[in-house]
Amino acid sequence: MNKKGKLYLIPTPLGESAIHSIPAYVIEHLHALDFFIAERAKTARRFIKETAPKRPISDLTFYELNKFTEREELIHFLDVAEKGKDIGLLSEAGCPGVADPGAVIVQLAHEQGIQVVPLVGPSSILLALMASGMNGQNFAFQGYLSAKKPQLASDLKRLEKLSQQLKQSQIFIETPYRNKGLVETALNSLSSKTQFCIAIDLSTPQEYVVTKSISNWKNTKLPELHKRPAIFIIGQKNVF
Questions:
Q1: Which residues contact 178 (CB under 8 A, 6 or more apart)?
Q2: What's residue 1's pLDDT?
Q3: Model-level pTM?
Q4: Closest C-alpha among 43, 44, 18 to residue 123
Q5: Does pLDDT of 240 surpass 70?
Q6: 3-class secondary-structure state, position 210
Q7: Starting from the edge strand earliest in sequence, which strands make up the sheet with 35-38, in order?
Q8: How far is residue 7 from each of residues 41, 81, 114, measured CA to CA in Å?
Q9: pLDDT at 208 over 70
Q10: Most buried of the four, 9, 95, 128, 233, by CB within 10 Å?
Q11: C-alpha to C-alpha distance for 121 and 129, rounded to whole angstroms
């Protein structure tokens, strides 16, 4: 009976000019693999090329996992691991399986008895929380909120209430082209003392992370938000 291969969860940079955020040992594992699962093969190839592999990218095999992937196709992505070959799972940006469709492959690996090996790399969620000054002992990631303004305002107030009741930092994201609308809605909906963090382009030369109360944000010139990857956090001021 052949020994099964492993599924390596390989982090990728959060933005351009951020290859430095990927540890050397991750790149070593990356260069040892022949098979990859990625949301977009084009993005994965570009990332691998940036790490200066010693062999042609054309020698590698990529399977795409996105909203167009049929289940009948997906369930065969780990066939090479069943045959003893290691395979890498790549996110579009950051850590695979976290706010990322790769979680379904990790679940499948567990069901098939394939060892899952998470590798260290940048997580925008944790980097934003670390830099926010908000409660890092109790927090929740809420993903995307509503795209419609009336419901968005309601979502923001709900998270504000949770942050007050549970003393819990509420972390969420938005499609980059809607960042400005989200921040404007937050400033018009949340209480003046509520803490609000805006974290943009984390780990890149353009990184911006600032936490202020809503009242202070209203008197501050906002950063350029349009089409920049961002993390937002609602919380309460720490008492010490």
A1: 147
A2: 58
A3: 0.92
A4: 18
A5: no
A6: strand
A7: 61-64, 35-38, 87-90, 7-10, 116-118
A8: 17, 7, 7
A9: yes
A10: 233
A11: 15
